[in-house]
Specification:
Blueprint: H1 3-15, E1 25-26, E2 32-33, H2 40-52, H3 57-62, H4 70-83, H5 101-113, H6 119-128, H7 141-150, H8 168-187, E3 190-200, E4 229-236, E5 239-247, H9 252-266, E6 281-286, H10 295-302, E7 307-311, H11 322-335, H12 344-353, H13 357-368, H14 371-375, H15 385-388
Parallel strand pairs: 3-6, 6-7
Antiparallel strand pairs: 1-2, 3-4, 4-5
Helix pairs in contact: 2-4, 11-12
Length: 399
């Protein structure tokens, strides 16, 4: 080995390998441990040894545990002499936040005001607004995306809300509907029954599933769409009162048949057309579909002294509890795997029987949570709880 090689070897031995010098704290006995943070107590002890007792840097380094390097002691004493402090400064590495708390709140307000706004549009608005964002001359889209995630804003499916949904006429109709319901409750015993029709088709299946990565998720379904099956159902606080499926859509004649079956379910034959004090009145609440207003339906209710109907205001499905019943009922039908384990009609009946009174009571309570907003004639953009009650504990049903 030549002289140059011997000199490089001695340097590596002396420094314990490339890059090892200065990377640790030497322990008693010659061992070296990884870099540690010197606590404020040890720093105060070092200052006391050097300043008050006159020890050398090396002696002060040997008096503490773990043993420190002389250079570390020099740095601690120099900091005390120059800055008059013993404690360590908090970590301040990395890039600082571009936006202040107020500026992040302004970005969040942009998204709340316009749910369809794009990141590029937010970027342009931030740079153009030299009032709120006067110190921001450039910002990346990824930075804006991080700000939105930090404030719990995420990409979601957009729900289309008709312009007429919150027109003055519709809000007034909601107000009148709630007033009418409260008047009926004050007059005497009334049983509110929610009635509606919903279509069903076997070709509708779940849109998402699971499978091994690289393989499609598949599910078997009928090859042809076939005819729709329509279910007409009625629910109240007592649960599902009546449900009759039929092939094709409902019409006036089929609705009259359903109302007859519902009447037999509610009113015993011996009571017939009697209306005595203390007898409850049954209020049928349904939407404004055309055949609900037909002449035959009006004549049928005129002949029933203990049954009456109340129409829901337009663009207000959140006031009809049976909407949630049909949402739950459809998926229960799919869980029974019609045409695989049982006929479709049997699956529809079995699914309706699985829905109990407690579930119906919860759906009815949920519709009544909208009553104060209807009384106040407020805009109701979406019937999703998160939009109406942003604070989580206000969305919990305590009844």
């Amino acid at each position: 080995m030549d002289q140059r090689g011997q000199r490089q070897a001695r340097v590596r031995v002396r420094g314990h390998g490339r890059g090892a010098r200065g990377r640790g704290v030497r322990m008693r006995g010659g061992g070296v441990v990884g870099r540690i943070q010197v606590s404020d107590e040890i720093r105060a002890t070092i200052i006391d040894h050097v300043i008050n007792h006159g020890l050398s840097y090396r002696e002060a380094a040997q008096r503490v545990q773990p043993v420190l390097r002389r250079s570390t002691v020099v740095s601690i004493v120099r900091t005390f002499q120059n800055e008059n402090r013993v404690h360590r400064l908090p970590h301040a590495g990395g890039r600082r936040n571009i936006f202040s708390v107020q500026q992040e709140a302004a970005i969040v307000d942009m998204v709340v005001a316009n749910n369809a706004i794009k990141l590029r549009e937010i970027q342009t608005a931030v740079i153009a607004d030299q009032g709120t964002f006067q110190n921001i001359n450039s910002v990346s889209v990824s930075t804006i995306d991080r700000v939105l995630k930090k404030n719990h804003l995420a990409m979601k499916q957009l729900y289309r809300v008709p312009f007429q949904r919150n027109s003055e006429m519709v809000k007034e109709a909601r107000f009148q509907y709630v007033q009418r319901i409260m008047e009926l409750e004050a007059e005497g015993p009334h049983t509110f029954i929610f009635v509606d029709e919903a279509g069903f088709n076997l070709t509708k299946v779940r849109r998402r599933g699971r499978n091994i990565i690289g393989h499609r998720a598949t599910v078997t379904a009928p090859g042809q769409r076939g005819a729709n099956i329509t279910m007409c159902a009625a629910i109240s606080n007592d649960g599902v009162l009546c449900h009759i499926p039929t092939v094709g859509p409902y019409n006036t004649e089929r609705l009259i048949t359903f109302l007859d079956a519902l009447r037999h379910r509610l009113i015993p034959p011996q009571e017939g057309g009697l209306l005595r004090p203390g007898m409850p009145l049954f209020v049928i609440i349904w939407d404004n579909v055309a055949f609900h207003h037909s002449r035959l339906v009006n004549e049928w209710f005129a002949a029933q002294p203990r049954m009456m109907m109340q129409f829901l205001p337009a663009y207000s499905p959140f006031l009809n509890a049976i909407e949630e019943f049909f949402s739950a009922w459809r998926w229960k039908v799919y869980n029974h795997r019609p045409y695989d384990q049982m006929p479709l009609i049997d699956a529809m009946t079995a699914a309706a029987q699985e829905i109990g009174a407690e579930e119906c009571q919860g759906w009815i309570r949920h519709t009544r949570r909208f009553f104060p907003r209807c009384i106040a004639r407020e805009n109701i953009a979406c019937d999703v709880d998160e939009n109406l009650w942003p604070i989580r504990h206000e969305r919990i049903d305590n009844d």
